[in-house]
Amino acid sequence: MPEGTLRKVDGSGPARAGQEKWGWRGGGWHYRLWKPGTLSPGPSPRLPRGTGRTMEGRNWGADKPERPEVPSGSRASVSRSEAGRARRRQPFSNSHNTLKLRFPAEDEFPDLSSHNNHMAKVLTPELYAELRAKSTPSGFTLDDVIQTGVDNPGHPYIMTVGCVAGDEESYDVFKELFDPIIEDRHGGYKPSDEHKTDLNPDNLQGGDDLDPNYVLSSRVRTGRSIRGFCLPPHAARGSAAPSRSSPSKAIDRHFLFDKPVSPLLLASGMARDWPDARGIWHNDNKTFLVWINEEDHLRVISMQKGGNMKEVFTRFCSGLAQIETLFKSKNYEFMWNPHLGYILTCPSNLGTGLRAGVHIKLPHLGKHEKFAEVLKRLRLQKRGTGGVDTAAVGGVFDVSNADRLGFSEVELVQMVVDGVKLLIEMERRLEQGQAIDDLVPAQK
């Protein structure tokens, strides 16, 4: 792993050769650190049970909770209030879909009249009726898919997707919903299109000289999912929690994700039982991080202060390759297919899953009437430095690529590098009281 050994969440020293340093209860996800710069696996990786996958002689789906008892009698004997109380008693995942199916589709169709997300634009009463009785092999239903978009009509800063996948099969079982959402979110990406991948940092042009007077920090992240396991919105509680090293120190240093407060994550169930089954690895320099079981199985992050995006991306590619090699050595692989690229929980992250971003000071351009249009033409997006749910403060923005799917990793980072250089040039012009009309780019 880049720049030294990885350390466990509390920041204590690296493990000795052969020593188990960190792992979930029951022997899953143990790693051994053999020498600086490398990782060697312990027992087979295991994500939260509930998928029915047999491993180490145990059927980890066998102890899933039984389906709740459906009230007896005809449909007319089950009142709306009774059904509502029954729903509230259920676990997060819609194992109570049997109860919901006792009501007509038109009664169960959610009110989306005031919603502004991609799911609400696509889902119709007819499509809901067609898909609502379907489920993936692990039991993820249409109502599971759309719940976060139902509970969150819109977002003040971005156009949200409004749905999630619970497993790899979700994108196929509910393709009549997902395909048009993906096409809408990813700029016309068709069901027949194929994704491309390029994780060779040598193909990136420039990027090592973004002006640090404007660029405060640079970051590249992606997600990865392990084939054969449910995604976080559908993972069972089980016994696969990490060892109880307190994460408080890492949270204070902003390395470990705190308990999610975003309603987009809460409504999809990704904050359940926090911090069980969550963890983090980071290198000695704290410039390479791996989050476990936040929005995705793995969230891989490379970051550092200043404007050397080339160095950040090189470390990112190297570390990601070593992580994939580790999993392959234990006969595990990432979810991937030629059409969607890397499979992740949110359809917005399909393809590369990559977000390359900078925290950049743009106090003048950030107030300019053409700022939003310039970003759109550069295929970039902005948010507050505190994340998707925050506004910019003091003229400092988090600017990153808007696309994930249909472009390679190198192409996306190149868009950010080239776009940030132009934004800095515009900011300098405005500092001098000069116009920027001639710098406004054509649509990429």
TrEMBL record:
<dbReference type="GO" id="GO:0046314">
    <property type="term" value="P:phosphocreatine biosynthetic process"/>
</dbReference>
<keyword id="KW-0547">Nucleotide-binding</keyword>
<keyword id="KW-0418">Kinase</keyword>
<dbReference type="InterPro" id="IPR022413">
    <property type="entry name" value="ATP-guanido_PTrfase_N"/>
</dbReference>
<feature type="compositionally biased region" description="Basic and acidic residues">
    <location>
        <begin position="1"/>
        <end position="10"/>
    </location>
</feature>
<dbReference type="InterPro" id="IPR014746">
    <property type="entry name" value="Gln_synth/guanido_kin_cat_dom"/>
</dbReference>
<protein>
    <recommendedName>
        <fullName>Creatine kinase B-type</fullName>
        <ecNumber>2.7.3.2</ecNumber>
    </recommendedName>
</protein>
<dbReference type="GO" id="GO:0004111">
    <property type="term" value="F:creatine kinase activity"/>
</dbReference>
<feature type="binding site">
    <location>
        <position position="254"/>
    </location>
    <ligand>
        <name>ATP</name>
    </ligand>
</feature>
<feature type="domain" description="Phosphagen kinase N-terminal">
    <location>
        <begin position="100"/>
        <end position="187"/>
    </location>
</feature>
<dbReference type="GO" id="GO:0005615">
    <property type="term" value="C:extracellular space"/>
</dbReference>
<comment type="function">
    <text>Reversibly catalyzes the transfer of phosphate between ATP and various phosphogens (e.g. creatine phosphate). Creatine kinase isoenzymes play a central role in energy transduction in tissues with large, fluctuating energy demands, such as skeletal muscle, heart, brain and spermatozoa. Acts as a key regulator of adaptive thermogenesis as part of the futile creatine cycle: localizes to the mitochondria of thermogenic fat cells and acts by mediating phosphorylation of creatine to initiate a futile cycle of creatine phosphorylation and dephosphorylation.</text>
</comment>
<dbReference type="InterPro" id="IPR036802">
    <property type="entry name" value="ATP-guanido_PTrfase_N_sf"/>
</dbReference>
<keyword id="KW-0067">ATP-binding</keyword>
<feature type="binding site">
    <location>
        <begin position="355"/>
        <end position="359"/>
    </location>
    <ligand>
        <name>ATP</name>
    </ligand>
</feature>
<dbReference type="GO" id="GO:0005524">
    <property type="term" value="F:ATP binding"/>
</dbReference>
<keyword id="KW-0808">Transferase</keyword>
<dbReference type="Pfam" id="PF00217">
    <property type="entry name" value="ATP-gua_Ptrans"/>
</dbReference>
<comment type="subunit">
    <text>Dimer of identical or non-identical chains, which can be either B (brain type) or M (muscle type). With MM being the major form in skeletal muscle and myocardium, MB existing in myocardium, and BB existing in many tissues, especially brain. Interacts with SLC12A6 (via C-terminus); the interaction may be required for SLC12A6 potassium-chloride cotransport activity.</text>
</comment>
<dbReference type="InterPro" id="IPR022415">
    <property type="entry name" value="ATP-guanido_PTrfase_AS"/>
</dbReference>
<dbReference type="Pfam" id="PF02807">
    <property type="entry name" value="ATP-gua_PtransN"/>
</dbReference>
<feature type="compositionally biased region" description="Basic and acidic residues">
    <location>
        <begin position="185"/>
        <end position="199"/>
    </location>
</feature>
<feature type="region of interest" description="Disordered">
    <location>
        <begin position="185"/>
        <end position="213"/>
    </location>
</feature>
<feature type="domain" description="Phosphagen kinase C-terminal">
    <location>
        <begin position="251"/>
        <end position="430"/>
    </location>
</feature>
<dbReference type="InterPro" id="IPR000749">
    <property type="entry name" value="ATP-guanido_PTrfase"/>
</dbReference>
<feature type="region of interest" description="Disordered">
    <location>
        <begin position="1"/>
        <end position="99"/>
    </location>
</feature>
<feature type="binding site">
    <location>
        <begin position="383"/>
        <end position="388"/>
    </location>
    <ligand>
        <name>ATP</name>
    </ligand>
</feature>
<dbReference type="InterPro" id="IPR022414">
    <property type="entry name" value="ATP-guanido_PTrfase_cat"/>
</dbReference>
<comment type="similarity">
    <text>Belongs to the ATP:guanido phosphotransferase family.</text>
</comment>
<feature type="binding site">
    <location>
        <position position="299"/>
    </location>
    <ligand>
        <name>ATP</name>
    </ligand>
</feature>
